[in-house]
Design brief:
By secondary structure, the protein is an all-beta fold. It is built from 1 helix and 9 strands; from the N terminus they run ββββββαβββ.
């Protein structure tokens, strides 16, 4: 289970991206249990939002979206928030480096990549003036769709409670090096982020590799 947050700032608007996921991974230990190679399946929900008023910002509580423009007319909507939810299925690949000595509580390092494919998405707009809600479909036409896929590259530290060949619990930090979207397909492009993961491990093979 994981929760990741990305914060993006501009001169006018503050945006936020949060990714929550749950999944199942299998890890194979090699070189006397020093390295762990893992792969699995992950369901994640990416929530992206644009709007300063909901993120404790000191800026204005609305921004303008140009949703119709021609030679004779330009129309803007006052918008408080634009929110988007995307559901993804992904495959995480990770490698972990464990300490040589066996301890009940041990610190380890990890690095990995995950490939994620969209299965569903939905968008919503919160208008400053409720009377503008009749134009929601028109405004949504100029809002980017949720990305069809994304790839993350990450590193982190982990703390595991439990011996190698016994059930245990781990808490890991999650620091993305890069979140990659197909060109021109992202709703919010994150610049930095961090997160935590909680893992429950159950050994299937007690033989030392």
């Amino acid at each position: 289970v994981s929760d990741q947050n990305y914060d993006y700032y501009s001169d006018q608007i503050k945006s936020l991206m949060t990714i929550n996921y749950i999944g199942l991974k299998f890890e194979y230990r090699v070189i006397k249990n020093l390295f762990g190679l893992s792969a699995g399946l992950r369901y994640s929900r990416m929530i992206t939002s644009i709007g300063r008023d909901s993120y404790m910002s000191s800026g204005p509580d609305y921004f303008y979206v140009n949703f119709n423009q021609s030679d004779l007319i330009t129309e803007y909507a006052k918008v408080c928030e634009i929110n988007q939810k995307g559901d993804y299925l992904g495959i995480p690949l990770e490698v972990r480096l464990y300490p040589r000595k066996e301890h009940k509580i041990k610190l380890y390092y990890k690095a990995g990549v995950s490939f994620n494919l969209k299965v569903h998405s939905i968008s919503d707009i919160s208008f400053f003036d409720k009377s503008m809600e009749q134009y929601q479909s028109d405004v949504m036409k100029v809002v980017e769709n949720a990305s069809p896929n994304y790839t993350t590259f990450h590193i982190g530290l982990g703390l595991k409670i439990g011996k190698t060949n016994k059930p245990g619990i781990s808490v890991e930090t999650y620091t993305p090096i890069r979140v990659r979207f197909p060109k021109g397909s992202y709703f919010v492009n994150p610049l930095a982020g961090s997160g935590l993961q909680l893992l429950l491990s159950v050994p299937l093979n007690n033989k030392e590799q």
